[in-house]
Design brief:
Shape: flat
Oligomer: single chain
Helix content: over 70%
């Protein structure tokens, strides 16, 4: 009987999650589409279909950029998810804060890369030059480095520094050495993104392993204590 009740509660809980997920997706998307349809002449398919299908271009167009965006997204998710686990376990509070801000920073870079903020949106629609955007990012990056310098020194910082070096090479290629082919600049950026992802992936994996090992030790100790008590 208890098993049936538990299964019923589990089904109800899952249905609630499904409803929340559907509504959280449907309501914002529908609102945007309704606003666009009622205020502009833009075809709604331009917002919903794949760009390569709309423009009738080969699917490999922009593949290097798309791979970079996938790494940005994965890194953002890993940082924030690990931060949540550490907070739940009440372990490594300094790394919890570090991973939280790292996730936010990576998410910002993800949005910039995905929506072409510093390349197109901000310069053309808000009249903010690309170099000013880079200057803002530089200040954010320096603030991040100063704030978490002690934690960075305790980790595999060489991987992190390597990511920064390749990001710098990409920015220099874009703003100073403009005669360098775009493929070189984009390759520098992708190498930087992969190193950035590798650093945070390895750090998150290390901290999660620490949590699980502690949990396993506690569970084993509890089982041993119970066994002794029963005897």
């Amino acid at each position: 009987m208890q098993k049936l009740v538990a299964e019923k509660l589990s089904y109800i809980h899952q249905v609630k999650i499904v409803l929340i997920t559907v509504l959280a997706t449907l309501i914002p998307l529908s609102s945007v589409l309704i606003i666009v349809d009622s205020t502009t002449d833009l075809p709604l398919e331009d917002l919903t279909r794949d760009p390569s299908a709309i423009m009738e271009i080969p699917p490999y167009i922009g593949i290097l950029s798309n791979i970079g965006i996938l790494f940005w997204c994965a890194c953002t998710t890993i940082c924030l998810f690990t931060c949540l686990l550490l907070k739940k376990a009440n372990r490594f509070p300094e790394y919890t804060k570090f991973l939280f801000y790292s996730g936010l920073l990576t998410g910002l870079l993800l949005l910039d890369d995905f929506f072409l903020l510093h390349e197109t949106v901000l310069p053309e629609y808000m009249f903010i030059s690309e170099r000013k955007v880079y200057a803002v990012y530089l200040m954010i990056g320096l603030t991040f480095l100063v704030k978490f310098r002690k934690i960075l020194q305790k980790t595999e910082y060489i991987i992190f520094v390597n990511a920064i070096i390749f990001f710098a090479l990409s920015i220099i290629s874009d703003t100073i050495w403009e005669e360098i082919p775009n493929a070189v600049e984009d390759t520098f950026k992708l190498i930087g993104i992969v190193n950035w992802f590798t650093y945070f992936f390895r750090l998150s994996l290390l901290k999660m392993n620490s949590i699980f090992n502690v949990s396993s030790v506690k569970l084993e100790a509890a089982l041993t204590t119970t066994d002794i008590t029963l005897r």
